[in-house]
Structures are given as structure tokens and as C-alpha cells.
Amino acid sequence: MSTLDETLRKATALAGEATHEWLVPKAPLSTELPLVELQISYEEKRKLHAELKHFAIGDSACGLRQMPALGRCLEQLLAPEKSRLLRDFQHCDEVALVIRGLPVDAQLPATPYGGDPDIAELPVVAGAILAVLAVLGTCPVGYQGESEDSVFRHVSPRQQRETEKSSYGSLLDLGMHVDNPHLPLSCEAVQQLSACPEYLSLTGLRCELTVPTRIVAIADVLNMLPDFVEQELLRPSFSVRRPDSFDHQGKVLEHVPLLYRPSSGGLHCRYNMASVSAHCEHSRLALQLFAAAASHPDVVRSVLLQPGDMLIFKNQQTLHARDGFAPRYDGLDRWMLRVFGVNDRKRLLPISTTHPFIARA
């Protein structure tokens, strides 16, 4: 019996006969089709690597200033159908895209376990990431409390932080979640805090073959659950606190929904397994069922990122996770670069004029 079936069985026993009709699951939606992939050819990779050296990206500010030129460079080197796939991603129905074979710097530093290496040590892969995001038409951003001066976050195990449920943790499973769910979603107004990112990109530098990134489309999760689950998740019955990756903690949202279906269309979610709590029995049951369905093998897709592979997904329409692992601390552990993207720069509230790409969070 699957985790979802077992959860439904227990929930039915607890809920009583009057609510049995709530708990009839829909048929699981099989996701045998792979994620859309864009393969960079050997010749495209070689030419892009040579061009990126001329940009000499030393930090985030330098890279962001050159994004328009980086985007033009990438579009000129890619086959037209590949450029079109990137440009159309923002408005298509697909929620995730894998790009295989971007150029990576020849001499990578050791996987960082304490302080982060300067992005000047990774100018080629940093330029490749910014070039892709430029063609996508999104604005890279870092968030106060997670970053001081860079849009790049090094996703790698950190000593003394192994049991933290963040991109720096390792030993514990990182459950299904939307990143930065305490921030205003695309359908909400920005007031004191900046917008939640529309995009999250992960680019592989070193790969752990047994630790893929797992992602699931939120629409697929809802399609296999009883209707009452979505109805409960649309109610303002939840609290959301800042994720553990932020320096400052505390509950920042009270009595909010986890799902939003605005009248203009679309689906937005702020679910984070580690930072969400429910206020009543029905909302707790809905949260339990949603969590079980989000890990169902019929909807989860696993992505292994080799060096130079980039996974981009729509953060508010997708959940992602990874299993725990034991770092070796030999300089060759799993290492990725994460960059967020926001579509509307006006929805970012900079913490300073010197670093306008670091947003209040």
C-alpha cells in the first residue's frame, strides 16, 4: 500500500462516516513523460565557453550589468529552436526545464564547506547561468538574510550545519517545498517584503549520483487528491514562518491560504513541509494528505545534475526536495549554484542602493 493510500485509510477512519465522500481519491496521474530537456551541443558549448571568458565576471553586480549582452551571445550561438524554447518557457504550460551541457570552469575550487568561494573563481559557469536567465526574461535576485552581496548561493554541505533543513544541510531529508514561501506570491501585492521568486535555477558543479533533485508539479499533486483537500488549502487556515536558510526566524504570516487560484487564472502555492502549520482539524488533514501525495512516485520526477546541467522550474507551481546524505568532506561533495528569478523588478524592495539585487525578505 502506498503512503498516500495508507494516509487516506487512516484519515477515513479518523474522520468518520459523515466525511467519507471527502476522502475519495482521484486516479493517480502518471508522469512517465520526462521533463523537457535542452541539450547544448559540443560545438555550442565550445563556442560559448570561449565567449564567456571575455565577459570576465567578477561579482554579481558585474554579471548583472552584462546580462543583456550575455543573453544576445547565447541566442546567437544556440540553434534557433533552442533559443525559442528558452524564450517561450515563461508562458508555456511546462513547469520545469533541464538544460544539459553548459560550459563549466576548467579548474573548480574545492566544494565549499565554510565560506563561499568568490564568483570570480567561477566566471564561465556564472556567465552561462546569467545568459540563460537573460533569454528567459527574468531578473536574478538574492534575499536579505540568505545573502549579503550575491545572487548566487552555493548549495553544498556545511560543517556544523548538517542537520539544518536548508540548502546547507545534508544529513536530513529536505522535504517537498516552495522556496521563500513567506514572501508575497505573484498574485499578491508587495508591501513590506519583496516578491517570492517565480523561478529557481540549480546548476550542477559536482554531482552525487545517489542524491538527485526531486520535483513535482503542484497541479499533478492536486489532480490525484479529493476535491476537499484543495478547498481546505484555499482557506486562510495556515501559518508560514521563514525557512531555516534565513538568519532571522519567527512566524511572519498568520491565517493565510497555502493555495491561490486568482480570478485571472493560474495556480500559486506557498507550501513548505518544514515551515507550515495548520490551525484546525480539517486543514491539518488536508495538509497531511497533500504531503503524502506530493511524494507519490506517480507524480515525482528525479533529476540528476551533472556538471554543467541546469534545472529551472517555476517556484510557485512546483515543489522540490532531496534526500539526506552523509558528506565526505573531501572537497568533492555535491555542489550546485542556485539563482532565483523574479519577473517584475518593481516587485523587489532593495535593502541598499549599493546592492539593488538583494531584496528585503
From TrEMBL:
It holds the Pfam family TauD. InterPro entries: TauD-like_sf, TauD/TfdA-like. The lineage of its organism: Bacteria, Pseudomonadati, Pseudomonadota, Gammaproteobacteria, Pseudomonadales. GO terms for molecular function: dioxygenase activity. Keywords: Dioxygenase, Oxidoreductase. This is TauD/TfdA family dioxygenase. Residues 277-339 form the TauD/TfdA-like domain.
